[in-house]
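ugh finaly. both done.
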Amino acid sequence: MIPQPRTTTSLPRLLSGWAAGAFGFVVVMLGGWWFTVAVGVIVHLGLLEFFRMAQSKGIRPATKTTLVAVQLLLVSTQLASHGSWFAGGVAAAVLPASGAVICGWLLLQPVTGTIADIAASVFGLFYLGFLPSHWIKLRELPENGLALTLLACFLIVATDIGSYVIGRRFGRRPLSPISPGKTVEGALGGVACAMAVGAVGGTWIGWGWGWLIGAALGAVVALFALVGDLTESMMKRDAGLKDSGDAIPGHGGILDRIDSYLFVPAVVYSLVTLALPLPLG
């Protein structure tokens, strides 16, 4: 999440932030099933928070069905990355099959489900299943998977830092009523910082014109990290909540920490795989 200006930084917030960062770095470096399990635990907790927000609005999502479908999607994505044609077929079938199962489950309830119930369930599957599964796809790329995953994470962190520092020092114009603490100047600072880190990262990976491609990737990541941040803020605002939960001391809930990380992997994975046929090396 792009931090909002604060006058002080509490010790629990600082320690939990460093601990979360260290944990993320370790599991990315380990990769494989360690990484998949870590992603699975995080999105499971995030999905519980999302469903609690939906339930506070009187919505009755298919909670258990969606939770199981998300884990099935993550596991099959990991298996498919190692060439399992069966797992690849399962991963492709999870979204449409789960949609049908969710509708069937809601039909069998004593009180028939509503459009909102279906929408919340399917969006939860997309938001905290399909999108995060691209972290696994990105990490398991045969070429530069580790480097690209680390770069994507560093770009999000750079966006956070740039937006916080520039927004706190120069921020004057509010960016959106959804999140009053964010400013246009802070958003531009986040983009600029991500572009600078991306330029270094593109050169480090060894792409031809690496600095230019990396800077462009940094700008895209910064924009989609901001979209992820504001999307979660919009949902919290609608639910009348300040934080999605209290799982992380000083930071709020799981969703409050991973919102910027949800849309980014699908965008980075798509851009990289589309660009691979080009002469980038």
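ok and the 2nd:
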Amino acid sequence: MRKYMITFAAAVLIVAGGYWALGKNHAPAADGAVVEKPPALAQQHSQPSPSPVVGEDDDEDKASADSAKRQTGDTLTSGSADKQGETPNQAGSGAMNTGAKTQQAAKPAQNASAGKSSSTGNAASEAGSGTSKTGGKGFINSYSVEHVVSNPESIAVLVNKTYRLPAGYVPPDLVYPNVPFIFSEKADKRKMRKEAATALEKLFDAAKNDGVQLAGVSGYRSESRQKTLYNNYVKRDGVKAADTYSARPGHSEHQTGLTIDVSGITGKCAAESCFAGTKEAKWLAKHAHEYGFIIRYPEGKASITGYKYEPWHLRYVGAKIANEVTSRHITLEQYFGQAVPVSK
């Protein structure tokens, strides 16, 4: 009998031990325990583009220049990367993936506080050294991050590969400046904002008094027009290549109404690198700032601006900013504290 009782007790102990072990293995996690979640996939972006080979200007300018040169007996330089027609690229629209953020941009060095006239040059004194979004360590002027500017109507607005204009933005006061163009039609690309147009007329008059006859090539350009041009480039060359020489929709300075490409009255070398050696380009480099304009993409600054040297591309910023940018031999990015590379 004693033998059976010992065996029964042993069995009970074994069963009890099994239940205890089972309960321990299924005990709930301790309060406050944190379960690490797998990291979310980061938004994919293409690598920052290398320094562009062609520049921000497009076939529209080349087509106008071509027309003017045919009238004067000149021909376009062979080998230009901008010979594409202007047929909309229906397939190309899907290729454009800018990854734009719909929030407002951090004000680039307080330039959002600038007003709408040339007096906005006071933004320089408020610029400061920039932040991680507007020029601090690690900032790269590329499409990998996009911000929508909060001050699109400011004369001092900064538009580049990182800062874009609001979707569908149209300047409020576009007018036709009373200056000659290398084409005859009364197209939108003749337009500029009123203050910039008035300044351009004074600049052209001053140049003429010095024996230099200038002509407009391309002024205002809508976002939809830029989209057509950009998509044509994407269809022809792919996104990566197109980004090295053409602005994406919303990122073109021409859309601000504050920019114009100019040439000599004959249209020779219009929107082409050979314009740099002309008397017109030399006059502009010396005097444009006196009328509130800067050479927006100066020589040797492609790593900062994102575009090669364009001596024909004038941007109106007002006299104060223009004088400082020109005298210091800097870019608009550097003026607002964004002196950082566009590519590594």
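summary for the 2nd one i guess: The two ends are 89 Å apart (CA to CA).
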